[in-house]
């Protein structure tokens, strides 16, 4: 490459800057050369980020470069761009509505999944429906998990192990932005990749199991007799056995404390069932995104 290409920055700083530039980037007509369209991706790892009449910013992997406009058109990179335009592989031009979403994804997905901005753009372009659907469902899952963290702290502490640890610990009481949603989805994809057996789907099942145990114990409460006591004790033993078997070790005293904190919330059965249903709605989308990411070697 020619020496006229100037490296501006790399890594996290570059990806955050790319997101900021794309938000205000617009197509620019260059006399004698045609139109430069920010959001154009080629060769799978390069993106035209920003253009003015006298300069261009473009990314290569996780590095951001600046060119003078004449240098840009002389660079071998533009030849790669023109050639790539003839083939669909590794090339696309993001629509304005797509760039708005991609800008929210770039920084968190780079940090959590190690995907550079061009790959994020391609990934979204090729999986738009799944990601858009996940953006619709994820806020409800976040809200319900935050509710569980507030009302059932011991249960959530026991569940914050393995793949779900980052998901639970990372949730904060705050105004939820698209970037928070993007981070949440990235955490879920990362967790499913690293430890699918301990990912979010397992967590939902445990919460429902706890809720069912509480309902049974409540229905037995106030009834006398040895058989009733035995039945209540058996349900608690079953919960302990189940949680230990699926990777969430718990003692008898912890199991009793968990069922007591859940029993203290009259909304628990409804909230935990709603959480399970919401996570179930997310799982097919997350699995599809996880498979796509792995197939790309991302």
Jot down its keywords:
single chain; 298 residues; alpha+beta; 6-stranded antiparallel beta sheet; two-stranded antiparallel ribbon; 13 helices; 8 strands
How are the elements arranged and paired?
Blueprint: E1 6-10, H1 11-24, E2 28-30, E3 34-36, E4 40-42, E5 46-51, E6 55-60, E7 63-68, H2 69-74, H3 76-84, E8 92-93, H4 96-113, H5 117-126, H6 128-151, H7 153-159, H8 165-170, H9 178-194, H10 200-220, H11 226-245, H12 252-263, H13 268-295
Antiparallel strand pairs: 1-7, 2-3, 4-5, 4-8, 5-6, 6-7
Can you walk through the features of this model?
The protein has 298 residues and is an alpha+beta fold. 64% of the residues lie in helices and 11% in strands. It has 13 helices and 8 strands. It has helices at 11-24, 69-74, 76-84, 96-113, 117-126, 128-151, 153-159, 165-170, 178-194, 200-220, 226-245, 252-263, 268-295, and strands at 6-10, 28-30, 34-36, 40-42, 46-51, 55-60, 63-68, 92-93. A 6-stranded antiparallel β-sheet has the order 1-7-6-5-4-8, sandwiched between helices. The protein has a two-stranded antiparallel sheet with strand order 2-3. α4 (96-113) crosses α5, α4 crosses α9 (178-194) and α6 (128-151) runs antiparallel to α13. The two termini are 26 Å apart. The model has no long low-confidence stretch (mean pLDDT 82).
User: What is the topology, as strand order, of the major beta sheet?
Assistant: 1-7-6-5-4-8
Q: What is the terminal-to-terminal distance?
A: 26 Å
Structural class: alpha+beta
Discrete helix count: 13
């Amino acid at each position: 490459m020619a020496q006229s290409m100037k490296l501006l920055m790399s890594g996290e700083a570059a990806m955050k800057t790319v997101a900021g530039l794309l938000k205000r980037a617009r197509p620019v007509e260059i006399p004698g050369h045609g139109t430069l369209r920010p959001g154009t991706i080629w060769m799978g790892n390069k993106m035209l980020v920003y253009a003015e009449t006298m300069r261009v910013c473009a990314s290569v992997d996780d590095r951001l470069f600046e060119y003078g406009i004449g240098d840009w058109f002389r660079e071998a990179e533009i030849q790669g761009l023109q050639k790539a335009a003839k083939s669909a592989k590794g090339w696309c031009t993001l629509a304005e509505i797509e760039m708005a979403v991609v800008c929210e994804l770039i920084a968190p997905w780079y940090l959590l999944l190690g995907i550079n901005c061009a790959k994020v753009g391609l990934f979204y372009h090729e999986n738009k429906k799944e990601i858009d659907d996940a953006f619709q469902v994820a806020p409800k899952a976040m809200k319900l998990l935050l509710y569980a963290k507030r009302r059932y702290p011991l249960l959530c502490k026991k569940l914050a192990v393995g793949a779900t640890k980052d998901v639970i610990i990372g949730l904060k009481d705050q105004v939820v932005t698209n970037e928070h949603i993007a981070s949440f989805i990235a955490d879920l994809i990362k967790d499913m990749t690293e430890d699918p057996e301990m990912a979010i789907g397992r967590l939902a099942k445990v919460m429902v199991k706890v809720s069912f145990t509480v309902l049974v114990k409540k229905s037995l409460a106030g009834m006398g007799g040895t058989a009733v006591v035995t039945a209540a004790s058996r349900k608690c033993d079953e919960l302990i056995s189940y949680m230990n078997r699926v990777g969430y070790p718990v003692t008898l005293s912890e199991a009793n404390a968990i069922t007591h904190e859940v029993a203290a919330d009259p909304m628990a059965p409804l909230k935990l069932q709603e959480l399970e249903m919401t996570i179930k709605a997310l799982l097919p989308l997350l699995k599809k995104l996880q498979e796509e990411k792995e197939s790309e070697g991302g």
